[in-house]
Design goal:
alpha+beta; 4-stranded antiparallel beta sheet; 3-stranded mixed beta sheet; 5 helices; globular
Amino acid sequence: PDTRERHWVPLTVDRPFDFGFLERLPFKDKVFDFVVASHVLEHSSEPERALREMQRVARAGYIEVPDAFMERVNPYKDHRAEITVRQGRLTIRKKGSWIVDRELVELYEDRAKPLFTGAFIPSRPFDFHVRHYWQDSIAYQVVNPSVDARWLAPVDDRPRPAVASVGWRGTVRGALRTLMSQSARNRAIDLAGLLACPTCGHAAVDRTTDGFRCHACATAYPDRHGLPMLYPDGTAP
């Protein structure tokens, strides 16, 4: 399937997978040794809650986002926060709209964007991204917690990009990826043992013929094409 905030990149489902909200993760406490949130946190309108949930379900993890500098001069229509690291702590500024400084963005696009995208970013990509590892707890500060970042993202009406030919190198990479894939092992993982109800406060859920149901509040979560829809109150967006 496609999602509007993944820039037309199809999902690859080669392991147990479910849909839910980062701010109300459908997993038991400390059920994961390590979690990865790569280019996810900047999409959350409630980053404080998202970070609390990551700490609740995992013992350690890795967070990667665009650095606040790039988000300010080259904002994405579906990014709701500017994030950087200061003194080892994530510093988060929620965005009241997708573009914070229109004049600065226009200046960047007119004067600097070709240089950044053509030379600086390809040669030094990690200088323009936050790469933050954490263990036990996440050190962070939201500098403007009262800002409402729940605005509706503008519709991206650009045409879908054509799928480029992968060439022989891409074919070889694909073959090696398939050969070395751990999808068989991943699919053997019992997802049900990790899940908890996101509606009533993380009570256990039971598998049913068409999805899952909470022990405590009896909220039902449907299963669509083999993928559990674990949204609060059992209502998928």
